Amino acid sequence: RVAHIFPIILWLNGILVYGDSLPHYKQRESVFATRTSYLANGNKNTDFPLPEGCVPTYLWGIFRHGTRNPGDDEIVVFYNKTERIREKLLEAWAFGNSGLDSETIEYIDLWHYNLTEEDGGKLADAGAFEHQLMGKNWGERLGDFITPDTTEVRSSHAQRCRKSGEAFTAGLFGETADYYVDDSVARPYDSCPSFQENVNNNETNVLAESRKFEASEAFEVVASEVEDLTGVRFSVEELVTIWEMCRYETAYAKDVFSPWCNLLSDEALKVFEFREDLSTFYYKGYGFNITLQMTTPIWVDLLNRLEMATSGEEVVNKTVMLFTHSSALYPFMSSLGLYYDGKPMLASDWPFTDRLWKTTEIGAFATSLVFIVADCQDDQAVALTQENAENAKIEIENLVPRPRIFLFHHEDLITLPGNIQYVDEFLDHYAHKLDVDFEQVCAL
């Protein structure tokens, strides 16, 4: 074992601390797929988000939890692998075979993986910060529209989701709001045996393309680059572990790059991103029909609530929020028809830089999809045509405008499929989602 070659300095929460920030040479582009910090994508603009003349009347949002710890099984793997990786890096440096700079080597020399299995999957401090900031930003955008008395908050039972919801509402209202656990909507995959057997527990099919990519020339280039830099020839599994340390620590540090990232070039980060995009496409995206169908409980909730909100009946909770996981949000996003490139994603597609399915941009920590219903004064479309109104001897100015619907992803306004603009169009377009028999499609 290589002895420590630098003096001891502070480290905290799995991250070595140099003063107030991690040592790094430049803030590079965050390309960390599903472990990208919210801060890399979150919309910092807090101006009123709707077109002039529009007044919000209803909000329904689904939110992924913020930055979290690795799962308990990952923690065990990372602990064992990182110790061996450290020893290899330090040995190569001690014998003059490494091109790494002394600051990076100093960090790695004193670094230890201090998470335990008990920490598995829990929300990190950075994750709470992300949601508190997002809640604060939505509060500033919508002002008095969102109030504690008219807000319904639901969550998965998982600690990282519950704590994300608490942080979000603390940022929104200045104090945490009441919530209740509703796994039937937040985790529909748990109640879908067909998804569990054919997707979740079927690595052979789900990971086929990502494993092909791991055996490709692109990964060989990464291994050679890292060897030239460090003097160590790492296996694919070890390279993946280095990437995991790089991206988790960067997210923990609120999008400040970890020194572990100094082992990987910008192109290497994109290789790892593509590898993960392949697996998420098949696990949580368009790869299997059952993945889209198991989102039925989410669709039932959304469509029924939208219909009620625009029916003219009184709605007590005009803001509804659901805090959940990528395993629910990504499939729901896919079932909306968003970010599909028109064909299954393949290892041979690399580099495919202009792809829509890029989880760094569409699926970071604290990803959100927020639907806002609004009445817009300058909207001339009405519930009845002019001719019908005249026939019914109804003055056109007395007709109620058609409610508009707006979708925000990562707090940015995006275009709905088919350029849908009105709630009735949305309900018609996705009405077939209510025809899916969840119990039947999920049965083995």
List how many beta strands DSSP finds.
Answer: 9
Unreliable residue runs: 1-26, 381-385
> Helical proportion?
40-55%
Oligomeric state: single chain
Structural class: alpha/beta
Total helices: the number is 18
The profile of the biggest β sheet is:
7 strands, mixed
- Rg result: 24 Å
Strand arrangement across the biggest beta sheet: 5-4-6-3-7-8-9
Tell me what portion of residues adopts beta-strand conformation: 5-15%
Estimate the global geometry from the Cα principal axes.
Answer: globular
Mean pLDDT, to the nearest integer, reads 91
The SSE string, one letter per element, is EEEHHHEHEHHHHHHHHHEHHEHEEHH
SSE inventory with pairings:
Blueprint: E1 11-12, E2 15-16, E3 54-64, H1 72-94, H2 102-110, H3 125-142, E4 151-155, H4 159-173, E5 180-181, H5 183-186, H6 193-200, H7 203-206, H8 208-214, H9 217-230, H10 236-252, H11 266-284, H12 289-293, H13 296-309, E6 319-324, H14 326-335, H15 359-362, E7 368-376, H16 386-391, E8 404-409, E9 412-414, H17 423-429, H18 438-442
